[in-house]
Amino acid sequence: MKLVLASASPRRRELMALAAPAYEVCVSDVDESALTAPDPAALAQVLADAKCAAAAALRPGDVVVGCDTVVDVDGQVLGKPRDREDARRMLDSLSGRTHRVHTGVCIQAPGEQRRFCVTTEVEFWPLDAAERDAYLDSGEPYDKAGGYGIQGGAAKFVRGIRGCYFNVVGLPVSQVHRALRSMACWQALGFDESD
């Protein structure tokens, strides 16, 4: 039995190493555009469930962690920007405001499952056009939900957060760790109480 992360995100892979001492990666194809939910937090959970189920089908008998992060401003989901104009629109909508970052998590093991969504509130300072455009020029916004990476150049935009910082990066480390430790599979994976 192996622990498997169902994600291609390099940031999520780094964070998973903080949550568990050893894991492998299995990325599966999920058509995210076909999935819907009544609100952004529920959408994050639906996406996480789908990614977990798809990877679990490829890795039966293993413990699979699937997750997805959604940025929410006033109930509107901000995904990864399509282009520069889309990224500009997203940053402008976040400027001087508080938004929410939801990460849905689904952990599937033989005979047990844990599902949960973690929400963090992030407040941005008002952004002027020069700093916004410099960030757009950096190339950083284009592969990130909401068009920004709190762990990178957008750190200077953040006035404050309420909740888990790592959740905003892409994986709520402590919550995932505690969920895994609460499952019967933890010891079957070869981990102990000190891990």
Automatic annotation (TrEMBL):
Gene3D superfamilies: 3.90.950.10
Record-linked InterPro entries: ITPase-like_fam, Maf-like
Obligatory cofactor(s): a divalent metal cation
Domain of life where this protein originates: Bacteria
Compartments where located: Cytoplasm
Active-site residues (renumbered): D68 (proton acceptor)
Gene Ontology terms, MF aspect: hydrolase activity
Reactions listed under catalytic activity: UTP + H2O = UMP + diphosphate + H(+); dTTP + H2O = dTMP + diphosphate + H(+)
Main EC class the enzyme belongs to: hydrolase
CDD domains: Maf (cd00555)
Family membership: Belongs to the Maf family. YhdE subfamily.
Protein name: dTTP/UTP pyrophosphatase
